Every structure is written in structure tokens, then in C-alpha cells.
Amino acid sequence: MRIAYTKNVEHRGKSGVSNCCVPVIVGLTSRFDTSEVIYEKLSKIEQLLANHDSLLMALVDQVKDRELSSPLSYSSVGGRKNSYVESDTNISGDDSDLALIQTGNLPPLTIPTGHNTAAIRVLRLPQVKALIGEYPRDYFYEIEARRKVFGLETVSDQPYLDQEVCDGLIEAFRTTAHAHRPILDYNNLLSLYKDMFANGFTWTIETAIVLLALALGEVASADYSKISRLTDDPNWEMPGISYFRPAFEIISKSSALDFGVNILVVQAQVLASIYFAYIAYPLYSWRLIHAASTTIELLLSRTSNNEPPADEEIRLFWCCFLTESDRLAEFELPRTGIGSMVDDMLLPSVLNEDAVIIYFLAEISIRRLLNRVHNTLYTDDGDAKAKSIQTLLIISEELNRQLETWYDSIPSAVRPTLGMNAPENLNEREIILRVRYYACRHIIFRPFVLRVIANPEVNYPVEVLENCAKCISSIRMYIHNVGYVLSRPSSYTWTLGMSSLGAVLVITAASQSPVLQGYLPDILELQNTVLKNFLPWATPESSIQSITWILEHILHRQQFNFK
């Protein structure tokens, strides 16, 4: 299967003719849905992501008008809400929707500056501070900024290369890191790999890419104790570091002298960032992805307007977008200019029915949707605390509809099952999409929980409490599914640690609320599950170790209160 893209193709619908970039899918067999079906699904989700902020702005404006003219009572929200959303959120593109889109007021598909979703923001809620005290706003950043990668500062030597061992590591790379971030043409990698053994080791960027693949294959196959340094072995070293160290030296020299000319430099920077993600060093990972994003910007800026970017450039762009978004979701860090290019960037092609790329496309879409949720509900301007209940109900329903449409848009052959049960064969790509789904659903409905916690004396309508239940249920599912990901090394370990902390803090605060505590009879079990998920990855002096300490403190206080 191949998804190509053409520009300025006419689409006819209720709004008439529009020009846009559209996917053209060729060569799809019955293993997946038909090409027409996938075309419709991908087009629909891309249209949703392009349009839904305009629709939300229209909804908010109309709700404000209604509140001014004839305020709705809480009890009337439910009856009017469904018909209101149904009539005013048509995404097919009628004239009013088109007029809104043409205003150009859409927020970017990136994490907003100063958003309120991060775990450290939840940690500073009054209800949470009452349990565990106050933490500074840069608490986790300061921890990570002081960390050093053990063994990285050692003088680099040519690594010992045993071809039989390396063959296994290259295959491990293919099934792990490459499956999550398919930035390389695997056949090209194999050619570089064979050349290295045929012609001998050289200090070149081509060799660095091979070494990084070997390092990732080793770290992705390692036991958790080797990564977390939870071992008494006096000869311990970080898995993959013997390959990574010389590769990192090559990257440092090559990137300092490259100005967007050599795509191999960007590929090496991204692979190095992924390695740091596997060993849960988020700031090191961010530094490399920041450099890669800047380089890919330079590279893309040199592309002719008449020629679309090469597919390998498109893959690199989206990998940078995913990693940068994950870091900015928790840390307030400098942005690259890559965010300004998201709206216009093509999606990767899908060749030979490659499920790896289809999973990659699905993760790109859910990350874009997550960023839109951040922009809609968690910015200083769009803070849910400042919105009326009526507005919040309508916005959350619309966002949740976008989420369900994303889920339905995934081709059936790779669509993740939902629930707590482990997927067949513990397919990590499927689990990641499932985790992303519950993470998004949780933050869509989190504002209702925070509203009820902050104002427990209010007599809330049933719709608000139902949305609180949806948030709590999503967190419950999220916590259990994160455990499947963390049963092995993962480039998502730190990201899941921070988001799990934020989620468990929300339900911990909810369990203290007279209104919501009945939804959480299993609060101690959930807190213990999060703690057990991350204890194996609690490297000394890391933010994940601090997460486990915070959870142990909460558990002690909760157990005392329950006695």
C-alpha cells in the first residue's frame, strides 16, 4: 500500500469546492480496509483536526450569547446540549464553518506555552499540597538538569564489533525502536551495516547511524535493572553505551559543521534522542530533538516550492514533532520553529502494507489532537476554570467526538482494542495507541473533576458528574495499560511516568472529595499500581525516582486516613 499526496485537488461537498492536500492511496490489498475506505477515514480525521477549533470557537461564542440572553439552569443543560451540538458542529463544511476557517484564527497544532496540564501543575493543587506539601514549579526540571549519563564522558574508542552479536542487535532495533519511530529506510540501514563490516570502521556519520541502531537494539533488549542501575555489578555500564559513545562524538562534530545539507546528520540526531528516551534522560533527549528540528527546518527550507519533501524528510519532521510535543507537555522549554510548519506538512507514505507506518500515522494524529486539547482547555487564555459549565460541557463533548472519530479512523487491522486486558502478543504499538486514547480522554474530562473538587458545595447537574466518572474511568484504564508498556524497555518510560503522576494525583484529590470519592473504591489499588509500574525504572537521582517517593508518601497518608 502507498499513500501519496497531491496538492490543490478539488473536493465537492456541502460547502462547494475547496482546494487542499489530499492522500491518494495505491496498491492496497484486502489485508487492510479498501483504499477508498482508508482514504475517507484519513481525510475525515485530517479535516476534523483542521476544523474543530473553529467549531469550538463558534460554540463558545453562541453559548455566551445564549447565557446573556436567557441563562440556562444547570438542570436544562443536558436536554439542550445534545441537540445544540448536533446542529452546530457539522464538520462537513457548510458556509458558516467555511467562513470561520477562512478567518485564520486556528491555534497551532503544538503544545501551548504556559499550559496547565503538566504533572507539576497538578502537584501544586491545594488538595494535593494538603497531602504532600509544596513543590517548586521547576522541581522535575532541576532534577533532570543535574543528571549525567554514566559512561558518556569517557574517551571514545572504536567499539568491539562482533558480527554475530551485531546481527541480533540490528534485528532487535528493527522490531523495537524502528517500529516506533521509522525514520530510516531499513534496507538502506542494512547496506550501511554491511559496508561497515566489509570496509572496516570509520569515523563517519554513516558509521554513527549504524552504531546508534546497535545501541538502540541493545538498550531495547536489556533487563530493566541494567538501565535503571539497580544492580550491584561492579562492571555495570549502560546498555548500548559502548556503541553510543563513539556515535555521539561523531554527531557532535558533524552537526556543528552541518547547515541542513546532510539528512544523515538529522537522522543520527533523532536516533540519539531516541536512545536518551530509552534510558529516561528527557532533557538530553529534548536537546538532541531540538537540534534535529532546527536542522530539518533548514533542510526543508531549501526544498523547491514545486517539489514536495522527500518521504524520509517527512518522517523525520513528524518524529521531531512527536518527541518535542511529549517533552513540552511536561517541561516549559524553548520551542523550535517546527510548530509553525505542522499545518502544511504532508504525512508519510505507506509502502507495501507496512503496519509500522500506519501505527506511526495514527500516533501523529492523536498527538495533534492531544495538542488541540491542551490549546482548548489548558492555556492561560482557554483555562477551563474560567469557562461556564454550559460551555465546558459542549466543548468536552465536541473534543470527545474528535477522539472517537480518530479511533474509528484507524484501519481495522491495526486498530487497538480498548479495555484493561493485555493486547494479543503484547503488541507495544497497539498498547501505545490505547494509552494515548485514554490519556486524551482523561484530559478532555479532567476539568470537570477539578471543578467539583474546588467547589464541592455546588449542586452539579448529572452531566458534570457523568463527565467526572468518564475522567476517572479513563485514568483507571490508563494506569493499567501503562503497566503493559513498562514491562519492557521503552522510549516512552519518562513520558508515561510524568503523565501517570498527573493522572494519579487527580484521582487522589478526587478520592478526598465527598462528591467523588464514591467513584474510587479502588484508589489504594490504583496508587499501588502506579508505584509498582515505576519502581523498576527508578534510577537513582532521577525524576522517576522522585515520582516513586511522592507516591509512597501519598500511599502512607492515604492508608493512614483509611484506617
Walk me through the structure:
The chain has 563 residues and is mainly α. The protein folds into three domains: 27-104 and 353-410, no CATH class; 112-139 and 416-563; 158-344, no CATH class. The protein is built from 22 helices and two strands. The longest helix is centred in the first third of the chain and has 35 residues, at 35-69. It is globular.
- What's the story with the biggest beta sheet? 2 strands, antiparallel
Give me the number of helical elements.
Answer: 22
- The spatial strand order of the largest sheet comes to 1-2
> Runs with pLDDT <50, length 5+?
1-39, 52-107
Q: Compute the gyration radius: what is it?
A: 24 Å
Number of strands: 2
| Global geometry | globular
Protein name: Transcription factor domain-containing protein
InterPro entries: EcdB-like_regulator
Organism: Sugiyamaella lignohabitans
Topology:
Elements: E1 2-13, E2 16-26, H1 35-69, H2 74-88, H3 95-102, H4 119-123, H5 126-132, H6 139-145, H7 163-175, H8 177-180, H9 186-199, H10 205-220, H11 224-228, H12 241-256, H13 263-278, H14 282-301, H15 311-328, H16 355-377, H17 389-409, H18 428-454, H19 462-485, H20 493-511, H21 523-534, H22 543-562
Antiparallel strand pairs: 1-2
Helix pairs in contact: 1-16, 1-17, 2-17, 7-10, 9-10, 10-12, 10-13, 12-13, 13-14, 13-15, 14-15, 15-16, 16-17, 16-18, 17-18, 18-19, 18-20, 19-20, 19-21, 20-21, 20-22, 21-22
